[in-house]
Design a protein that fits this description.
- The structure is a single chain.
- By secondary structure, this protein is an alpha+beta fold.
- Helices cover 44% and strands 19% of the residues.
- The protein is built from 17 helices and nine strands.
- Strands 2, 4, 5, 7, 8 and 9 form a six-stranded mixed beta sheet that branches. A three-stranded antiparallel beta sheet has the order 1-3-6, with no helix packed on it.
- α1 (11-24) packs across α4 and α9 runs antiparallel to α10 (159-167).
- The longest helix has 15 residues, at 47-61.
- The chain is globular, with a radius of gyration of 25 Å.
Length: 376
């Protein structure tokens, strides 16, 4: 099993963090501070709760005056940017710190009553560690003002500020509070995405696609209309709309399938489906194969997927779709497909023993399910 993500708050992190705090806070008591963090509940906290706890302990040592406290946070960031830590962050390829996200959390938790100071602080912090979570309480409390600010940020010279203008207003951003007003009516998001659809930063474009995928879950028509408008405009927009429609593609939405060139499966067949491992041990893999037949005198563009129906704790099954390929298959062709699905233990999925199912999906159309069993 991989290292839990919450362990990014390790000894190396605390060494760097406390050194930076000593530089900013004159009477900083390192041992007392660490004892407040490493309380009797620390070990059992997940990544989100650890970040929230770090935000709380930071508040305890910063000045009570909010403006002075945020100045200290900026000073802390500027110090860290001069250390080897920042060089390591740049080498990751993402270019923003993951560990220090709680600095933005501090603003979201304690700065709601000082809008101007908080917005200025977020703009600085998010160039060091992304503040997509920090802006969400402000969107809820100041919806009109904040969405106007996000639109301004979408034209900022710094890529990380442009990214937060999209990432922060995702209606269903994982690990963070939902935005019910934007789930119901995402119209104020669209101008932001319009500004970013050809952004030079790949991270920004990924955020635009993920925002579209969030919107799809409540307002699919808005996204479909945007797909029709953006399609063919550039390589960037074509990638964004394709990635942004991944949920609709997995659902087999016929209008979206047609927009991306996936047509009728009348002459596409599956034969000789075979599960090589009908009993799969935890830690091993499900192995299966089948033949894909294109029984027509022309190439066929096919989105080929399979669905695993996982056993849940209550005895019901939960479906998850995985892509095999998305390409043209030759006319009158027979293609043998071999695949494996790992059941290795991971931190993001808990496996339950018992009956599972698998099915093959062609252009959104699901074929019959086949059983297999997960055992110790």
């Amino acid at each position: 099993m991989g290292e839990p993500f919450k362990n990014i708050f390790n000894e190396e992190f605390f060494n760097e963090y406390t050194k930076a705090l000593k530089n900013v806070i004159g009477d900083f008591d390192e041992q007392l501070f660490l004892s407040q963090i490493m309380d009797d509940k620390w070990e059992n906290k997940g990544i989100v709760d650890r970040g929230r706890h770090l935000s709380t302990t930071l508040k305890n040592i910063l000045p009570s005056d909010y403006k002075t406290a945020t100045d200290n946070i900026i000073e802390l960031i500027n110090y860290l940017k001069e250390t080897p830590y920042w060089s390591k962050v740049q080498d990751t390829g993402f270019g923003l710190s993951l560990e220090y996200g709680f600095l933005g959390g501090y603003v979201g938790d304690y700065g709601l009553d000082d809008y101007e100071t908080s917005i200025e602080t977020i703009e600085e912090i998010t160039q060091f560690t992304s503040c997509e979570g920090a802006v969400r309480p402000f969107i809820l409390k100041y919806p009109d003002e904040m969405m106007k600010q996000m639109l301004i940020w979408s034209k900022h010279e710094n890529w990380a500020v442009r990214r937060v203008s999209s990432e922060g207003c995702r209606p269903r951003l994982p690990w963070h509070m939902a935005l019910p007003n934007l789930k119901e009516n995402p119209s104020s998001i669209i101008p932001i995405l319009e500004n970013l659809k050809n952004d030079p930063s790949e991270s920004v474009r990924k955020s635009v696609a993920n925002n579209l995928n969030d919107i799809v879950k409540d307002n699919p028509k808005i996204v479909i209309d945007l797909v029709k408008k953006w399609k063919g405009e550039s390589k960037n927009t074509d990638w964004i709309i394709k990635h942004g429609c991944r949920t609709l593609l997995k659902q087999g939405n016929s209008e979206v399938m047609e927009l991306f060139g996936f047509g009728s499966i009348e002459n596409i067949k599956i034969e000789d489906f075979h599960i090589s491992t009908p009993k799969v041990k935890i830690g091993e893999s499900l192995e299966f194969n089948f033949k894909l037949l294109n029984n027509i005198d022309e190439k066929s563009k096919i989105r080929l997927e399979y669905a695993i129906y996982y056993q849940k704790a209550n005895g019901t099954l939960s479906k998850k779709v995985y892509k095999i390929s998305e390409k043209e298959y030759k006319e009158n062709s027979v293609t043998l497909i071999n695949r494996k699905q790992s059941f290795k233990l991971i931190t993001t999925r808990k496996f339950h023993l018992g009956l599972h199912k698998i099915s093959i999906i062609i252009n959104g159309n699901e074929f019959e399910k086949h059983d297999f069993e997960l055992i110790e």
